[in-house]
Amino acid sequence: MAFSLSSSSSTLFFTLTLFSLLLLSHHQQQQFPPLNSAEQESVYLALESINPEIQWRTLYPDDLCLSAPHGVICDYLPNPNSNDTVFTPHIVELNFGYVLDSSDNPPCSSNSSFPLSLSSFSHLRKLFFYRCFTGSPVLIPSLKTVSSELEELVFMENPALFGSLSGIFGNFTSLRRFILTGSNVSGGVPDEITKLPSLEQLTISGNRNLGMGMIPNDLGCLEKLRVLDLSRNGLTGTIPNSLGNLKFLLKLDLSCNNFVGKIPEDLKNLQNLEFLDLGFNKFGNFGIPLFLGNMPRLREVYLSGNPLGGAIPEIWKNLRGILGIGLSGVGLVGNIPSSMGVFLTNVSYIGLDNNKLEGTIPKELGLLEHVNEMNLQNNQLSGGIPFSAPFVARIGGKLKLEGNSGICLDKSMKWSVDQVKGSLRNLRICSPTTENPNAALFVDGNGNGGVSLSRNWYLVFVLGVFWSIYLVGG
Q: Which residues form a coiled coil (predicted)?
């Protein structure tokens, strides 16, 4: 039997529903009061600091927790001083500056100044500035009055920001993420950063005047750290052994600094590490660290630009998950071990260029199915290249072999002349008498071999026999 409401029942149902919605709306209005005037005024002052050219009060005249620019975010938090379940609105995020076209954070102007009204935000969790300080110099202020609940503090690409990091941090026991990139800040990495017990990401990168400082010895106390990026700062000294205590670390990037000495063996304790970049420092004359072979979770390893010296070690058996390996310009000598082609089955990038490697290229490298860039240029390699035509066609111009005077095209690989691409066309053809006694003398456009060396010797032998008979008979 179909069920239907009578006219009177429908009216009663509609009345009850409307009454419930009105009660709910009234309850919400009682439960969620408007943003308090002090925080509202502080938001206006902050917006006017980063862009005084916009009439913020006119654009957003109402409660900023109900209508605010994209980067200003509220949360309704319980009032600890009330016995009832009362929620009070507070500003929890301030994000300034465009990041993506889809992000309409309040835009900064060329004459932005740092907001001085941050102490009013008692529950601020995130403070973010992207390309806000690009014109007149802006001194990075002390943030000791900012809420101790702050979890993220981010300064990205603010070249006019200057001063020292020392003394700016408050009682940030909840800070999980600190990022400072592309600034003019100086004075090195301050020791007080080691007093941030909740820190999970520390990225201080690309700050051109931060150099002449060292990594604090106690940085290894940040046991929750997962990302440590101190690249491109010109830092000096040695890497402290304490970094080996960062057992949850996933990424370590110390590239493009002036670190010296030996790469610390204690880094072998970073058993969760997936990304390691120590490239372009001054670590010298100790060879490639053998302990890398005992870090099976590594996915990318870059040591390029350090005068490490030595041969390529046999450490690849436990590194089958490697995706990228950079050993360019590190002074390597000896042969390329075939084990790299056997075990690095997932690798997509291999950089061994600008070394002193010699011998032939292992044929096993030509079996790597996922590699899309291989740079072997500027070494002392010799012999025919062992790569098939499909392998070369797949990699294209990212197979780099220039600067190895002894390398040649091995026609025994049954290559078609039309399949030889890019810089490989400049390689000479291998000499069959010296480099490959079984090599074909030519390969036609269909990949068919022509006269081979073995057949040539057979003809010479037959002619020699006839010549001998002629001479004897004469």
A: none
Residue 466 lies in a domain: no
Quote the domain boundaries for residue 197: 37-458
Q: Provide the Cα torsion 235, 239, 245, 250; round to 10°.
A: 60
- Whether the per-residue pLDDT at 312 is higher than 90: the answer is yes
Q: Which of 150, 115, 107 is nearest to 131 (CA)?
A: 107
Instruction: Choose among 219, 228, 165: nearest CA to 201.
Output: 228
* Residue 23 falls inside a structural domain: no
For the entire predicted model, the pTM comes to 0.83
**At 61, which CATH number?**
3.80.10.10
For CA atoms 54, 55, 60, 63, the dihedral sign is positive
- The 3-class SS string of the chain reads CCCCCCHHHHHHHHHHHHHHHHHHHHHHHHHCCCCCHHHHHHHHHHHHHHCCCCCHHHHCCCCCCCCCCCCEEEEEEECCCCCCCCEEEEEEEEEECCCCCCCCCCCCCCCCCCCCCHHHCCCCCEEEEECCCCCCCEECCCCCCCCCCCCEEEEECCCCEEEECCCCCCCCCCCCEEEEECCEEECCCCHHHHHCCCCCEEEEECCCCCCCCCCCHHHHHCCCCCEEECCCCCCCCCCCHHHHHCCCCCEEECCCCCCEECCCHHHHHCCCCCEEECCCCEECCCCCCHHHHHCCCCCEEECCCCCCCCECCCCCCCCCCCCEEECCCCCCEECCCCHHHHHCCCCCEEECCCCEEEECCCHHHHHCCCCCEEECCCCEEEEECCCCHHHHHHHHHHEECCCCCEEEECHHHCCCHHHCCHHHHHCEECCCCCCCCCCECCECCCCCECCEHHHHHHHHHHHHHHHHHHHHHC
1 found inside a domain: no
What is the tally of structural domains in the chain?
1
Domain assignment present for 318 = yes
Q: Kindly compute the dihedral angle of the four CA atoms of residues 141, 126, 107, 193, in this order, to the nearest 10 degrees.
A: 40
409-439 pLDDT, tens digit each: 876 665 554 555 566 777 888 876 544 433 3
- C-alpha count within 13 angstroms, C-beta hemisphere, residue 75: 12
